[in-house]
Each structure stands twice: as C-alpha cells, then as structure tokens.
Amino acid sequence: MISTSKAQGELRNKTNTTWRAYFKGRLDTSLPEHRDLLSTSDGTGGAFVPQEFQTGFIAQALKAYAPLADFSRTRISKNGRPVKTSTVDDRANGMTLYVEGSGATIPEVDPSYASSTTSTDLFTTGQIKYSIQLLEDSEWDLETHLSNLASIRYGRGLERILTRGTDFSGTATPNNAGLMNIATVATTTTSLSASIGWTDLVNTFDALDAAYLPKGIWQMTSKTRNALVEEKDGFGRPYFTPAPNMGGFDMLLGRPIVINQSLDQLTVANGIPVLFGSLFDGFEIVGSELSVRVLHEHYALTLEQAMIVSTRVGSTALAPGAIQALKLAAA
C-alpha cells in the first residue's frame, strides 16, 4: 500500500510536470488521464486546471487575505449562474395565551418569507506575462510561483469586492453591494478626533439582535485593532482579550476579532472602521469555480505567453440588521 504522503508527492509531481508542459505549449498526450486535471476550452485555445492548484491557493488566499469569507454563507454556482435565495424571519412571533372555553378564534401568525436572486460579476487577476526564454531556462517550481502570485491577487481582490462592493481600481460592481453598504449604522462616534470609545463599541454590540450573537464577529483593519489594544474601559480593563494561542482570535466583548484590511481606517471622516454581526446569517456569497487560461499564441510574435485567472462573484444581504456598523463622525 502506498503511504498518504508518498501518494500526495506523486500527485504533486504529476501536477507540476503537466503545468510546466502546458505553459510551454507541449503537452504529452500519451500520458494517462488523471482525475487531478480538469479541462475546458474556449476561443483562446483552452485551459487545464489542476485541482491541487485551485483548492490549495484558494484556501491559503482566503485565510491570509480574506478571512471574512470563512464566516459567510458561500455557494458555488455552476458557471457563475444567478442563484435564488429564500429567507424567513420569524423573530417577532412567539407564544400567546389561549383561554380554555373562551371560544376565541386562534389567530393566524404566518412567518415572513422573502427571496432574492444573486447574480455574479466577472473578475480577473489580470495578465501575468512571462517570456518563453525565461520559462525554458528556469528550473523553479512553476506551479508554486504562479499560484502564489494568483492567490494574493485573488484574496485581496475578493476581500475588497465583498467589503466595499468595488474592484481593486475602485469601480463599483453591479452585483456586489459590499458589507459597508448593506450594514445598519448602529452608532456614530461623537467626534473624529476622539476615535472609538468604549460606549461606541458597547452600543454597536447592543444594536445586534441577540439571535445573531452566537455567530457574531467583529471586523476591523489591523491598524484599528492595534489602536484599540491600548484603550481601556471605565474600570481600567483593556478593550480586548488577546488570543491564548497562535492562530486564534482576539476577543472583544466575548466575540472574535477578524481582520479585514478593506474597511476604513480611523483617520477617514464619515468612514466605517468597524463592523459587527453574523455574516453567516446576514450575507451570502455566490461564486464560480476559478478558471486558469494560458495565452500561447497571443504574444507569440514577442516570444511571450500570459496567464489569466478569472472567476465570477456575487453577494447579497440576507437578514436586515444582522450586520451592524460603527461609523466615524465628520471631521
């Protein structure tokens, strides 16, 4: 029996070999077909997408650059097609007294249902162009190098899209409103120069319905978090509790702090530096599988090739009030 580590090593070697052959434009068609390769074709000549490449760099990118995606409701749509989402809100209903023998008619109390259709926008990491000479002369791990470049662009771009509803150049996206735009403003600081006070944080926490607290998280940039590290409440206690182990979450009012570098900094007048709420209950992400294409012929006259990574992403609000915002006052 082949050990797991040995089998994984063989799989990675096959993947790397295929990647190098593909980027050089000379696949060995005599090699047997393996499940670790998926193929699609289009007008540019097609693409081979190793599963290892996709699942590996997506997980790393989301963990390092877009951790908010780990706390959201995420659905994969085939080819990025629109997805219908249904919601129900029954928080206002409970039990009522019925007096035996009164003859009163039991009232009808129906839950509140709603539905919405989430469409997607097409995004790319741009072209990563390289010379054929460099490709032929180099002996580095091509898969690792290119996946690292693509994963960083993908993670940063996805975080910006989901948080602000814009791409990396600031262009608004039709089918991604952004967390900052759909969040309910819980409180506004009294003055910009005063930064964030303990009362501001408590009011933001209090504004969230208790039904959403079990999955509630704080979101802020690393600079905002660092600024709060030095702050104390009225009893002289630090605002937050440091994570007890590496890779854990710092806690604020009993809920974890998740770093989101796409939120506003504390120096932005009318900005939103802090979000608090349940992304799982209040936000849904719809995305397609990633597509990787290599342009073998487009730059042939300059003896170059290019790689393009693309995906389709859409997002929508699910439950009003499930995500609260702390807003800074005007300057």
Can you describe what's shown?
This protein has a 7-stranded mixed β-sheet with strand order 7-16-12-8-11-10-9. Strands 3, 6, 13, 14 and 15 form a 5-stranded mixed β-sheet that branches. A two-stranded antiparallel sheet has the order 1-2. 30% of the residues are buried. Helix 2 (51-65) packs across helix 4 (142-164). It is globular and about 85 Å long. Strand 1 (37-40) and strand 2 (47-50) form a beta hairpin. The termini are far apart. Residues 27-56 have low confidence and may be disordered. It is an alpha+beta fold. The protein is built from 8 helices and 16 strands.
Please give the structural blueprint.
Elements: H1 4-23, E1 37-40, E2 47-50, H2 51-65, E3 73-76, E4 83-89, E5 112-118, E6 121-131, H3 132-137, H4 142-164, H5 179-182, E7 184-188, H6 198-207, E8 217-220, H7 222-229, E9 240-241, E10 251-252, E11 255-259, E12 274-277, H8 279-282, E13 283-287, E14 291-295, E15 304-317, E16 323-327
Parallel strand pairs: 3-13, 7-16, 8-11
Antiparallel strand pairs: 1-2, 4-5, 6-15, 8-12, 9-10, 10-11, 12-16, 13-15, 14-15
